[in-house]
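New to this. Please check both lines:
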Amino acid sequence: MHSIFQYDVHLPANIAPDKKYPVVFTLHGKGSNEQNMFGLVAPLQDDFIIIGIRGNLPLGAGYQYYDLKSLGNPIREMFDQVVEQLSAFIHDATAKYPIDPGKRYLLGFSQGAILSMTLALTMGDQLKGIVAMNGYVPEFVKTEYPLHSVKDVSVFISHGEFDSVFPVRIGHETAAYFKEQTPSMTFKLYPTDHGVSQENQHDILNWLKQDANFV
């Protein structure tokens, strides 16, 4: 598979021939990398394929997927481009690895959450579900993008009550937006800043296993 993205792939240790597996594509936060989110979902690796996707733009010791004009204000051309590139990557990876196309999940934090929610809205039921932690949906996505229905997409949104980057108000607004779009929407708050607690991780793992019918 020729990809413009560097990525990290974990296949189940005892992978069965001719079997298709659910997949979690992880999208990291600004300044991180493709391995950063693996620890969060590592307990799923016997049942899921896990693919971490690295942003293409260097940022300090890490990477980002797009740059900003200001906080909460992506550079539109860069954002548009990476949304298209990530969609293509998901399809290419599905063709390369033994992935069940009916069980494709995105899991993202911060910038990765923003992209996960945007991809849900642009890919619709090509995705089974998303986990979006401490992010938001850019206004131009809601008003200017050609959106697909997410009524059959499962959505888990979490936010830190004391998030100093994206205030908790943004989490409530994001959840309210998706609640109008899909009946399969879970929203949880955690007593954290801009991060992921153990309780949050526990809830995410259980949610993914239940949604993919591993419980």
About this structure: The CA atoms of residues 157 and 187 lie 5 Å apart.
